[in-house]
């Protein structure tokens, strides 16, 4: 019965994300796009009162639908994660999130559209290592503690040798999180993402690091989240990968104070449409 509930939640979550992708494609023409589904599994998912991905037995399965597309005036990126395990996010022992008391499943989604100022204005805005400047938004929604965050700012595309893509963003952030009392928290948010393809021993690899820094997040201080992925291409449709997440922030007084940190290694399989 529990397995059936988890499967139903997984299919429902993926269906919602696929519906979002279909609706967007119907109203915008993308000159280039990539969509993939990847499955990750770890046996070291430590309880995390902020990100809410820890489980009672530290075993966690993550399913992600991800899409990136380029259009005439900018680009569009989103991912939708579903988390599955024993008591996902049940840090305080009384359930967490919009799935209610039964916390075998959680979800988290991000939509990150950008508008290129050079494409809109028709002018070359490059200078130094900066190739382009974008107006950017980042909308985040999660079931854990009914989390939501809205970010608005500037994204810079950088010309960094060896990297096929390098982006760094600065946002004004407004987040609401039940675990912190439900009040809106305003912070400065920094995001950096890059893609580095390389070949070793005749095999094709891709290293894609992600850095998220949420500055002065009240009692939690500055929150740091690092997520580098290493992918090995099997063929035109499948990759296998390794992800190593690192998170660090201050605990609240209710959580005993001090500094919280975790390392979460995850094995992944990705299917590119």
Question: Would you kindly provide a brief summary of this structure?
Answer:
Helices cover 11% and strands 55% of the residues. The protein contains two helices and 14 strands, in the order αββββαββββββββββ.
Structure description:
The chain is mainly beta and 273 residues long. Helices cover 11% and strands 55% of the residues. The chain has two helices and 14 strands; from the N terminus they run H-E-E-E-E-H-E-E-E-E-E-E-E-E-E-E. Strands 1, 2, 3, 4, 5, 6, 7, 8, 9, 10, 11, 12, 13 and 14 form a 14-stranded antiparallel beta sheet that branches. A hairpin with a 4-residue loop joins strand 5 and strand 6. The model is unreliable at 13-26 (pLDDT under 50).
Secondary structure topology:
Blueprint: H1 2-27, E1 30-42, E2 60-71, E3 74-85, E4 105-116, H2 117-121, E5 130-142, E6 147-158, E7 165-176, E8 184-200, E9 203-208, E10 210-215, E11 223-226, E12 229-233, E13 238-250, E14 259-272
Antiparallel strand pairs: 1-2, 1-14, 2-3, 3-4, 4-5, 5-6, 6-7, 7-8, 8-9, 8-10, 9-12, 10-11, 11-13, 12-13, 13-14
């Amino acid at each position: 019965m529990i397995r059936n509930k988890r499967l139903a939640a997984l299919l429902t979550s993926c269906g919602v994300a696929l519906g979002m992708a279909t609706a967007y494609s119907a109203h915008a023409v993308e000159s280039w796009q990539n969509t993939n589904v990847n499955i990750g599994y770890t046996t070291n998912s430590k309880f995390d009162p902020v990100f809410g991905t820890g489980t009672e037995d530290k075993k966690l399965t993550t399913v992600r639908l991800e899409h990136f597309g380029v259009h005439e005036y900018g680009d569009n990126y989103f991912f939708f994660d579903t988390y599955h395990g024993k008591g996902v996010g049940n840090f305080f022992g009384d359930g967490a999130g919009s799935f209610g008391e039964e916390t075998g499943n959680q979800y988290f989604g991000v939509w990150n559209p950008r508008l290129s100022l050079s494409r809109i204005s028709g002018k070359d805005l490059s200078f130094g290592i900066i190739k382009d400047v974008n107006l950017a938004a980042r909308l985040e929604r999660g079931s854990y503690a009914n989390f939501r965050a809205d970010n608005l700012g500037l994204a810079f595309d950088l010309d960094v040798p060896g990297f096929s893509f390098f982006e760094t963003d600065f946002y004004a952030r407004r987040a609401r999180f039940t675990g912190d009392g439900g009040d809106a928290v305003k912070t400065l948010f920094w995001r950096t993402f890059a893609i580095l393809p390389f070949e070793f021993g005749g095999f094709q690899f891709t290293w894609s690091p992600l850095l998220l820094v949420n500055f002065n997040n009240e009692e939690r201080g500055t929150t740091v989240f690092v997520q580098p992925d290493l992918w090995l291409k099997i063929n035109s449709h499948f990759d296998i990968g390794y992800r190593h997440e690192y998170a660090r922030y201050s605990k609240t007084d209710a959580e005993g104070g001090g500094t919280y940190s975790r390392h979460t290694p995850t094995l992944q399989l990705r299917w590119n449409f």
